[in-house]
Amino acid sequence: MARLAVTAAAVASVGIATATPASANGGVNWVAKQLGTCLSWDSDNYATTEKCTDAYNWDEARLRNGSYELTAFKNGSWCLDGNGVGRRAYLGRCAFNHDNPYQQWYETKTSRGWVLKNAATGECLGALTRYNVRAISCGDSATYWD
């Protein structure tokens, strides 16, 4: 899959761009390699995966520590949040100064795909099933994304 730079608006506001998964509309689609569906959210703001559409794109802002804040593309005040091993990921109100480490994700490209590692917990985002997206041990096959 082709890689694109982070949107210019996000770069201008917080830092330097690096390559991330591609999108059709300026945001990023994260595709769970194991499931073939995109990172999204449900009506209760829990992270899920769905058929890939621009409705589930994410805006990304690179922070000074090298991590990214992933904001729901169509709702700029909700960020991907993960607060513990085994807990479901969810959307939480974005921190005012980008200072919530539970909303910060290190994006690392590996030979198996991209890995999203939470800055606070050190756990990786894993899509075990469509409705089961949570923080799990890095290296599990469910933690790889395109």
Identify the strand order in the major beta sheet.
3-4-5
Q: What is the helix fraction of residues, given as a range?
A: under 10%
Return Rg in Å.
Answer: 13 Å
Query: In terms of per-residue confidence, which ranges show pLDDT below 50 for 5 or more consecutive residues?
Result: 1-19
Largest sheet: 3 strands, antiparallel
- From the spread of the alpha carbons, the general shape counts as globular
Look at the structure and give the mean pLDDT: 83
Number of strands: 13
Features:
146 residues; disordered N terminus; 13 strands; 3-stranded antiparallel sheet; mainly beta; two-stranded antiparallel sheet; single chain
Structure report:
With 146 residues, this protein is mainly beta. It is 5% helix and 40% strand. It contains one helix and 13 strands. The strands form six sheets. A three-stranded antiparallel beta sheet has the order 3-4-5, with no helix packed on it. The chain has a two-stranded antiparallel ribbon with strand order 1-2. It has a two-stranded antiparallel ribbon with strand order 6-7. Strand 3 and strand 4 form a beta hairpin. The radius of gyration is 13 Å and the shape is globular.
Topology (elements, then pairings):
Elements: E1 3-5, H1 8-14, E2 19-21, E3 31-32, E4 37-41, E5 47-50, E6 58-62, E7 68-72, E8 78-81, E9 90-93, E10 105-110, E11 113-118, E12 124-129, E13 132-136
Antiparallel strand pairs: 1-2, 3-4, 4-5, 6-7, 8-9, 10-11, 12-13
